[in-house]
Amino acid sequence: MGRRFSKRKNAPPRKERDPNEVYAEVKKENEQMEEYYKAQNIMSEEEWPVFWNHLKVTLPTTFRITGTRSHAVEIRDTVKNAFVPHLSNISVDGTVADPPRPLAWYPDDLGWHYDVPRTLLKKSPEYAKFHQFLVAETEVGNISRQEAVSMIPPLLLDVQPQHWVMDMCAAPGSKTAQIIEMVHANEQHQVVPSGLILANDADYRRSHMLIHQTKRLQSPCLMVTNHDASMMPSLKLAPNKSGEVVPFEFDRVLADVPCSGDATLRKNPMVWTKWTHGGAMGLH
Question: CB under 8 Å, gap of 24 or more: what pairs does 273-281 form?
Answer without folding.
Answer: 273/26, 273/27, 273/30, 275/30, 275/32, 275/33, 276/32, 277/32, 277/36, 280/36
